[in-house]
Amino acid sequence: MRFQSKVVLITGAAGGLGEASTRRFASEGANLILTDLDQEKVETLAAKCRAEYGSTVLTSAGDVSEETVVNGLVQAGLEAFGRIDILFNNAGINPTGNVVDTPLAVWDLTMKVNLRSAFLMTSRVIPSMIEAGGGVIVNTASIASFKASTNEAAYSVSKAALLQLTKVTARDFADLNIRVNAVCPGILENFMADRKVISSEEMMAERRARVREIVPFKREGRYEEIANLVAFLACDESSYVTGAAFTADGGLTV
């Protein structure tokens, strides 16, 4: 098992890609530090990992765009496990709106959740990785990191910035055996949690029909498929890969 006894910290762990990735890491022997805003969901996921895979799991519920929350989480993880080998920055939101109709509060929140959280987690975890002799960071970016998305101004800008954060961090810490890469999903099997709550069945049907028109694979991506890519970037099989953005979009951007 590729992650036997490795310590993996996952933000946005309780839903969608976070849950799929958590299960993938757990199935391959990882110890887990899971955090999400939804305490009930993250505790339920932790219980499933303990029961199904025998995982050792530390959970936390909080806003990882807040410095005190991040500091506390990292400290608790280090106290529990002694190190953090892999960080998966997955927390994110995806509001709609162009630059005219996006409220400033929504813009600021998107930058906080999608970018500031990754900056804080990365900056707090790297010192322990340096002390341990290395580590791996994977960021959830998007095809919106390099291809503008209609009516997603805040989201697209935040993900473009996250991709650059990935690259500068990879360059700055490569000589310390710390690898940093990004996964860039296309259209996945469901909306992100914040968009899902305002999506009707009709909207979902229209979305699936649109996917069949524009995606060469004629379908949405499955969370497990992206989790496979996350696991590859986190394991030693990708030991010579850093600063890279891996697109997984069924050919949409080809």
Record the SSE blueprint:
Elements: E1 7-11, H1 17-27, E2 31-36, H2 39-53, E3 57-61, H3 67-81, E4 86-89, H4 104-132, E5 135-140, H5 153-173, E6 178-185, H6 193-196, H7 201-214, H8 223-234, E7 245-248
Parallel strand pairs: 1-2, 1-4, 2-3, 4-5, 5-6, 6-7
Helix pairs in contact: 1-2, 1-8, 3-4, 4-5
Describe the protein in words:
With 254 residues, this protein is an alpha/beta fold. The chain has a single domain (7-190, 222-240), classed as Rossmann fold (3-Layer(aba) Sandwich), CATH 3.40.50. It contains eight helices and seven strands, in the order E-H-E-H-E-H-E-H-E-H-E-H-H-H-E. The protein has helices at 17-27, 39-53, 67-81, 104-132, 153-173, 193-196, 201-214, 223-234, and strands at 7-11, 31-36, 57-61, 86-89, 135-140, 178-185, 245-248. A seven-stranded parallel β-sheet has the order 3-2-1-4-5-6-7, with helices on both faces. It is globular.
